Amino acid sequence: MLTQSLNTSVTGNKVAPVAYSPDQFCVLTGHAGLVASEFSYRKDEEIYGEDEPSEYVYQVIRGAVRTYKLLSDGRRQIGAFHLLGDVFGLESGATHRLAAEAIIDTTVRLVKRRSLEQAAGSDIQVARKLWTMTAGELRHAEDHMLLLGRKNAMERVANFLLEMDRRLAVAGMMALPMSRRDIGDYLGLTLETVSRALSQLHSEGVLGFSGARQIVLRNRQRLRSMDA
Amino acid sequence: MLTQSLNTSVTGNKVAPVAYSPDQFCVLTGHAGLVASEFSYRKDEEIYGEDEPSEYVYQVIRGAVRTYKLLSDGRRQIGAFHLLGDVFGLESGATHRLAAEAIIDTTVRLVKRRSLEQAAGSDIQVARKLWTMTAGELRHAEDHMLLLGRKNAMERVANFLLEMDRRLAVAGMMALPMSRRDIGDYLGLTLETVSRALSQLHSEGVLGFSGARQIVLRNRQRLRSMDA
DNA sequence: CGTCGCTTTGATCTAAATCAAGTTGAGTGG
DNA sequence: CCACTCAACTTGATTTAGATCAAAGCGACG
């Protein structure tokens, strides 16, 4: 499926000379012999499925991505949101442990996992970077386990807002790419509970809206005190 | 604190020639130049604290360990139980992200983190192993996020029983080292809810008790069907 | 064989889920 | 440019799974 799509919209082996500021990928893509391609996905399109062989490692160039697990009855747990510059899909084993979908129209840069492993075999800096990136994901997962296992709804939503503020706020405002349902599936809540928590924070003046997905935080300190 | 204790009960640099069957550590401790020591902790003794510098990597030789995070009001989320042979405390960064305590009287083998990093710098097999072990922890954390965010109490307890059965059952029976409270803090439940779920499984004949912590699974297939 | 911590069980409460309308607003086509 | 449409969001009413509060069992250990 991916290979099929590659024929239609990949930009080819030539990597555009674009600079990504705090680039988690540059140690990898900048490595001699590594070839990076670009690829685009429409809103809600699958990038890879759970348990699918992990052929590529990805970096978000435009848009946003959710990675998630599903239960057979449709319950979904989103493990992480991947925003501009983030690397995702990196696996030590042979398969992807979570599925990945574009939240909105998204462009990714991708490199072959095999070539990355090969580079790691000869360059200890690359090997170290692979470990560090996986350890970073583990850190996030450990924090998220505490949230999912022990925090109440308001604490979860406050935590989410602070995380998104840190990761995608521009000029004090954030444009959320994801729906209330996505947020709920990330926080282990229903979309209604997320909506009620946001409404309460709005009525308390902690945040302002310009449209449901444009949020400005007016009292970060208050939010921090709410995050457990 | 660790160095102080080392004076009293470390066995010294000589590593006993004991074989640990599926030894996750041997690629590391078997490496030339790596020095392994042993150390013991009493029940409920702290091995390291959250955010403490990560000086050592540990392997359980005897006993069992819990790693956890605390909120300021005492709510606790146990991230993992570490049983015989398991490695824990491995960090890519400078500090431990979770605290570690002995669940029962426990002996660990330990190697200096620095020496491990050094070995990884010259031996690509060691570097690869560090990455693989961290990726294994990440995999567990991702599965556990799904459990904590989206599974109900019975699904969580069924999952726990199957995990412990796989990891510590001997002759079809498991001797749990941890309390109902520990299980609850691992599963994001109260100890009462854990107890009720176990009682129900007992009354349904899915499991048998010989004392609260000696459990024999009588219908694994049924449990698997309950685990979502 | 008594004590104390752990576990079980019961009664009640509550935070969040579920069910159910409305409301809003972004995108579409007239 | 405006009206229409439909999915996303908000808000309200009700239910419920699991938490909390409370009181016995039990069993390991001194």
CATH homologous superfamily assignment of the largest domain in chain A: Jelly Rolls
Number of domains of chain A: 2
* Biggest sheet: strand arrangement of chain A: 1-8-3-6
- The quaternary organization reads as homodimer
Strand content of chain A: 15-25%
Number of helices of chain A: 8
CATH structural architecture of the largest domain in chain A: Sandwich
Give a brief outline of the structure:
2 copies of one chain form a homodimer. The first copy, chain A, is an alpha+beta fold. The first copy, chain A, has helices spanning 2-9, 26-29, 113-122, 124-150, 153-168, 180-187, 191-203, 220-226, and strands spanning 36-41, 46-48, 56-62, 65-70, 76-82, 87-88, 99-102, 106-112, 173-175, 207-209, 214-217.
Q: How would you explain this protein's 3D organization?
A:
The structure is a homodimer of 228-residue chains. The N terminus of chain A is likely disordered. Chain A folds into two domains: 141 residues, Jelly Rolls (Sandwich), CATH 2.60.120; 77 residues, Arc Repressor Mutant, subunit A (Orthogonal Bundle). A four-stranded antiparallel sheet of chain A has the order 1-8-3-6. In chain A, strands 2-7-4-5 form a four-stranded antiparallel sheet. In chain A, strand 4 and strand 5 form a beta hairpin. Chain A is built from eight helices and eleven strands. The longest helix of chain A has 27 residues. By secondary structure, the first copy, chain A, is of the alpha+beta class. Chain A is 41% helix and 23% strand. The interface between A and B is large, with 41 and 41 residues. Chain A binds a DNA duplex (30 and 30 nucleotides) through helix 7.
